[in-house]
TrEMBL record:
The chain crosses the membrane at residues 35-57, 77-110, 122-146, 174-193, 293-316. The gene is pstC. It is found in: Cell membrane. Residues 85-312 form the ABC transmembrane type-1 domain. It is a multi-pass membrane protein. Keywords: Cell membrane, Membrane, Phosphate transport, Transmembrane, Transmembrane helix, Transport. Part of the binding-protein-dependent transport system for phosphate; probably responsible for the translocation of the substrate across the membrane. InterPro entries: MetI-like (IPR000515), MetI-like_sf (IPR035906), Phosphate_PstC (IPR011864), Phosphate_Transport_Permease (IPR051124). This is Phosphate transport system permease protein.
Length: 327
């Protein structure tokens, strides 16, 4: 009796496919090595920051986490990150509140509403904005945005000052505040969030949109019921990319913000500071101990970034929905 060939079953779901060809083995080894190398680089950065942090924290005269002052000339020196952490987080939140809705709206307009020629031109402009150097944004913010924020800050102080958040202690002063920095950061991260969201919206299966249209949905209902649920994970990822740049932005913030060791809930007052701006301002003139303290503040920013990205991954994992893309 002739032997009949036996069919090989595909590997079970979740198990890697058997690698047999030499090219496949080489590619598999390269990808695995790249992933391991990335983990090693991250571990090396964390180890370096931690090692340099211990020498600074052990000699710090104040409490590193709660002291407001950052004074390398004091005897003994005093370094605290409370104001820097507050300024970094508040300015980033302001930027995200402004940038995310606008970026999603622009991305939806380019991908689903605008004519093809107009969509191409807008996409090109957004790409150009993403390529503008930070120092250019900083100079524009200092020379153009800050003087023109006077009217807005005065209006917010007059009509929303009762909220404490929008109260200005010294009306008429230059608008070199966390609020102005937040607006500048929103403009800077807008192209990043827009570009990623636009590409995610383009990946929505046409079958989903056509099914919604066949059921009598309007264009907005198609976007609300088919496009946004499918792209939710991508929107969160795009927002986290923008937040990462907002947390670590240096030159633009240093050019615009008038920092001081004052922690206040009034975001219109010229006070506060950010980690990156403080490092850029003090690193050149810092002593060896002062540089260790700046590296320690960098470690805190590193940890905050990891926590933010970890939280984003948890949100994506918990809110992931079935779609035609992962069937």
């Amino acid at each position: 009796m002739d032997a009949t060939p036996t069919a090989t079953l595909p590997p079970a779901k979740g198990q890697p496919r058997a690698v047999t060809r030499p090219g496949d083995r080489i590619f598999f080894g390269l990808t695995r090595g790249s992933g391991i190398l990335l983990l090693l680089v991250m571990a090396a950065i964390a180890a370096f920051l931690t090692f340099r942090t211990f020498s600074a924290v052990s000699q710090d005269h104040g409490n590193f986490l709660t002291t407001f002052e950052w004074n390398a000339d004091a005897t003994p020196p005093v370094f605290g990150i409370a104001v820097l952490a507050y300024g970094t987080i508040v300015s980033s939140i302001i930027a995200m509140v402004i940038a995310v809705p606008v970026a999603i709206g622009i991305a939806l307009f380019i991908s689903h509403y605008a004519p093809r020629r107009l969509a191409g031109a807008l996409a090109y402009v957004v790409d150009l904005l993403a390529a503008v150097p930070s120092i250019v944004y900083g100079l524009w913010g200092a020379l153009y945005l800050v003087p023109r924020m006077q009217g807005l800050t005065a209006w917010l102080n007059e009509y929303l000052g009762w909220t404490v958040v929008f109260k200005q202690s010294n009306p008429g002063t230059a608008a070199r505040s966390l609020f102005t920095v937040g607006i500048l950061l929103a403009i800077m991260i807008l192209p990043i969030i827009t570009n990623v969201s636009r590409e995610v919206f383009r990946q929505v299966p046409k079958a989903h949109e056509e099914a919604a249209l066949a059921l009598g949905a309007t264009r907005w209902e198609v976007v609300r019921t088919a496009v946004l649920p499918f792209a939710r994970s991508g929107i969160i990822s795009a927002s986290m990319l923008g937040l990462g740049r907002a947390l670590g932005e240096t030159m633009a913030v240093a050019t615009v913000l008038s920092s001081s060791p004052v922690l206040t809930a009034h975001i219109l007052d010229p006070a506060g500071g950010t980690f990156a701006q403080n490092i850029a301002s003090h690193f050149g003139e810092a002593t060896n101990f002062g540089r260790d303290a700046l590296i320690a503040s960098g470690l805190v920013l590193f940890v905050i970034t990891l926590l933010v990205n970890g939280a984003a991954r948890l949100i994506i994992a918990r809110r992931k929905e079935y779609s035609g893309a992962n069937a």
